[in-house]
Amino acid sequence: MLRVAVPNKGALAGPASEMLSEAGYRQRHESRDLTVLDPNNDVEFFFLRPKDIPIYVGSGELDLGITGRDLALDSTAPIEERLQLGFGGSTFRYAAPAGREWKLDDLAGKRLATSYPNLVRDDLAAHGVEAEVIRLDGAVEISIQLGVAEAIADVVGSGRTLRQHGLIAFGDPICTSEAVLVQRAGSNGSPNEREKAQLTARLQGVVFAQQYMMLDYDCPKELLEGAIAITPGVESPTVAPLAEDGWVAVRAMVARKHVNNIMDELAEFGAKAVLASDIRSCRM
Ligand SMILES: Nc1ncnc2c1ncn2[C@@H]1O[C@H](COP(=O)(O)OP(=O)(O)OP(=O)(O)O)[C@@H](O)[C@H]1O
Ligand SMILES: O=P(O)(O)OC[C@H]1O[C@H](OP(=O)(O)OP(=O)(O)O)[C@H](O)[C@@H]1O
Ligand SMILES: [Mg+2]
């Protein structure tokens, strides 16, 4: 039986469970449940703190886990990314009081508060900056005001928390994060590889389905070549004859973020009845 770790709280918990449900797995109904057995799929899910998930997966006790790339990098556990899941996007950045220009070198000799001390120490070392790293559990943005640090390094989503505390991000992002499926480092080809590959493929199907849409349209035959250039699909589009002579129906997957531009372009080009629909899941 495959044993899989899922975030039990925080920004990643809801979307991770939704993605697993969409991929056909049983998820918990009670937020206090710490395990769920899915006998049909031969998987047991363990609901754990996202920060702890690299430890369980790195020890080999659990086969796969969902966590944030930033948390995975901060952990010293031997784990590797198997799949990017496309949600929980954030950047991890240095920040300090607004009102002056900050550069990375300005951190030399300063106290820097963070919940991700390893990630920060590695980045400071890579830039040759020596600063004192103060480890806090959360609410890091308030630490400067409270006098324990001169600067911070923290997760930035919308940027609202930084603004609210009069802070400004500076320097290149230390890390660009999203939710990732992780496994123990070097465990590809382990005895349960087939089961791990199946869960990975199912999640990949949902990730693709969320990032793509299906486009259908009618196209005059003489414009087909140009229309295919606009919607080349993933492999190549499906083209089928229409009852009316001189027309074909075209079906192709397009990236969700470009769908409206592509629909405008097709309509301008001479396509008719351009329809966009959601994809629930797929295997590529
Ligand atoms: N505001 C946000 N927007 C997007 N992703 C976020 C945001 N906050 C956190 N994350 C992501 O979620 C993960 C951290 O999750 P979470 O906040 O649940 O952990 P935690 O801070 O260790 O736990 P807690 O805050 O409950 O003590 C990281 O991968 C981070 O990049
Ligand atoms: O840029 P924003 O959209 O404002 O989000 C960023 C904030 O969200 C996270 O905090 P969380 O809610 O996890 O609380 P924590 O500080 O206790 O970890 C993160 O640590 C930042 O504080
Ligand atoms: Mg948090």
If you had to describe this structure to a student in words, what would you say it looks like?
The structure is a single chain. β13 (238-241) and β14 (247-255) form a beta hairpin. Helix content is 26%, strand content 33%. With 284 residues, it is α/β, with parallel strands linked by helices. The mean pLDDT is 96. The two termini are 25 Å apart. It contains 8 helices and 15 strands. The protein has helices spanning 13-22, 53-58, 69-74, 117-126, 160-164, 193-211, 224-230, 259-269, and strands at 2-7, 35-38, 43-48, 64-68, 79-84, 90-97, 111-114, 132-135, 151-156, 167-177, 179-184, 212-220, 238-241, 247-255, 272-278. It folds into 3 domains: 2-87 and 179-190, D-Maltodextrin-Binding Protein, domain 2; 90-177, Periplasmic binding protein-like II (D-Maltodextrin-Binding Protein, domain 2), CATH 3.40.190; 212-278, Alpha-Beta Plaits (2-Layer Sandwich), CATH 3.30.70. The longest helix has 19 residues, at 193-211. It has a 6-stranded mixed sheet. A 5-stranded mixed sheet has the order 8-7-9-6-10. It has a 4-stranded antiparallel sheet with strand order 13-14-12-15. It binds adenosine-5'-triphosphate, 1-O-pyrophosphono-5-O-phosphono-alpha-D-ribofuranose (PRP) and magnesium ion (MG). Adenosine-5'-triphosphate (ATP) binds at residues 9-12, 50-51, 68, 70-71, 88-90, 138, 155, 157, 177.
**Beta-strand content estimate:** 25-35%
CATH superfamily of the largest domain: Periplasmic binding protein-like II
Structurally, the number of domains stands at 3
For the record, the CATH architecture of the largest domain stands as: 3-Layer(aba) Sandwich
Radius of gyration: 24 Å
Largest sheet: 6 strands, mixed
If helices are DSSP runs of H or I spanning 4 or more residues, what is the number of helices? Answer: 8
Q: What strand line-up does the widest sheet have?
A: 2-3-1-4-11-5
CATH class designation of the largest domain: Alpha Beta
Distance between the termini: 25 Å
- Can you give the mean pLDDT? 96
Global outline: globular
Stretches with pLDDT under 50, minimum 5 residues:
none
Annotation, overall tally of beta strands: 15
Examine the coordinates and then state which fold CATH places here, giving the name of the CATH topology of the largest domain. Answer: D-Maltodextrin-Binding Protein, domain 2
Helix fraction by DSSP (H/I, runs of at least 4):
25-40%
Helix and strand element order: EHEEHEHEEEHEEHEEHEHEEHE
Keywords: Amino-acid biosynthesis, ATP-binding, Cytoplasm, Glycosyltransferase, Histidine biosynthesis, Magnesium, Metal-binding, Nucleotide-binding, Transferase
Enzyme class: transferase
Catalytic activity: 1-(5-phospho-beta-D-ribosyl)-ATP + diphosphate = 5-phospho-alpha-D-ribose 1-diphosphate + ATP
Family: Belongs to the ATP phosphoribosyltransferase family. Long subfamily.
